[in-house]
Write a structure and sequence with these properties.
Elements: E1 4-12, E2 18-27, E3 32-36, H1 43-51, E4 58-63, E5 66-67, E6 78-81, H2 93-103, H3 108-122, H4 137-149, E7 155-159, H5 167-184, E8 187-192, H6 195-201, E9 204-209, E10 212-217, H7 219-223
Parallel strand pairs: 3-8, 3-9, 6-7, 7-8
Antiparallel strand pairs: 1-2, 1-4, 4-5, 9-10
The structure holds adenosine-5'-diphosphate (2 copies).
Domain ABC transporter: 4-226
Organism: Billgrantia kenyensis
GO biological process, one term: glycerophosphodiester transmembrane transport
Length: 226
Amino acid sequence: MARIKLEGLKKTYAGGVQAVKGIDLEVADGEFVVLVGPSGCGKSTLLRMVAGLETISEGRLEIGDRVVNDLEPAERDIAMVFQNYALYPHMTVFDNLAYGLKNRGFKRDEIERRVQEAARMLEIEEFLPRKPRKLSGGQRQRVAMGRALVREPAAFLFDEPLSNLDAKLRVQMRVEIKQLQRRLKTTSLYVTHDQLEAMTLGDRLVVLNGGRIEQVGTPMEIYARP
Ligand code: ADP
Ligand code: ADP
């Protein structure tokens, strides 16, 4: 099932920086876990190791029932939502959503079905024929989420997806991600340095410091402490 399990995960960069110093963590099926902590604490490195964008120096990583340490990103059955919109400006919203599926050789009607379904869930159906530049920031962000959604991955990884948005939009998108999470019950690992974002979104928070886990708990357990 969709579950992410990290055992003794470590990362030492060439040059000797120990960015991640031994992380044990399990994200349960359907759980939304937020990695939070100050800049440089290793959040991004950890997420990128899960995504397969960074090699793992030591430890074991499972997604679903598979050890994926040596698998390419595309083989890991995960989708990543990035900070920038990462949309193709010259393509319509439909084609932006369909692009990755086309590349993977999905059949036309399956692509159509998945794109329509993602668009319905994100309430962006009316934008499907439009180009991204005709959309507002929030609408573009939803399309970016749609690109991950159409892949129907076992788990979603979020790398500070809201940090480039203005304050108002950030709040709005936070609510939307929360609603989406309630509806879809996706297994998610979400990175942010924003405590409010972490509290709003996370079923469970993992506070990192200096490449190690400092605290793990529900938002209440972590922030309601004296
Ligand atoms: P965060 O996402 O919490 O800001 P990072 O994972 O980006 O933290 O960085 C953790 C540590 O690893 C920092 O000391 C950072 O300077 C270092 N680091 C990040 N990326 C690289 C890299 N490609 N090469 C060497 N050191 C890096
Ligand atoms: P799309 O985002 O439209 O689905 P692709 O999935 O084809 O596009 O990915 C484009 C590039 O990103 C490829 O080089 C692929 O290896 C890489 N990639 C695939 N899956 C992921 C992922 N989950 N996280 C990060 N990069 C990925």
